Amino acid sequence: MSRAQTRPSPLHIFLAFGSGGLLTLMVDFNGLVAFHGGAMYSSWVAHGTGTIAAIAFLALMRLRTAPGETAPKPAAPLWAYLGGVSGAITVMLTSITVNSALALSGTLALGLAGQVLFSLAADRWGLFGLPQRIPKIRDFGAVALIFAGSLIIIFANG
Description:
It is built from five helices and no strands.
């Protein structure tokens, strides 16, 4: 599958929206585990359960694939495996901040702002094999609105 620019399908939009809901649940659950056992413990629990789920999923996929159907795939670049490191750090940081005055909504709002800023940088410079795309003024307007919304969520205790 190429990363060429095309219009997203309604299914992809729904899946991305659903992943945001799952991310919210994950951060909340990890924060609850961190409250009782610490951020490092929360990260171990999250990644341990994720590993077990991935093994089960891979076992099911192996049963489903008929022999001889697998086409050779190119090897992933070594830096692609760093996703696990950033995932572990993300779990620990969100587990700490969700149990602070930021709470769940402030943690996710600022996390979204960080994701958008980093994704604009990744698009701009073509990081990680992405096609280069110059951010437009509307992209920076979206970032400003996300930051403004984050500030309202965090400081408007109403």
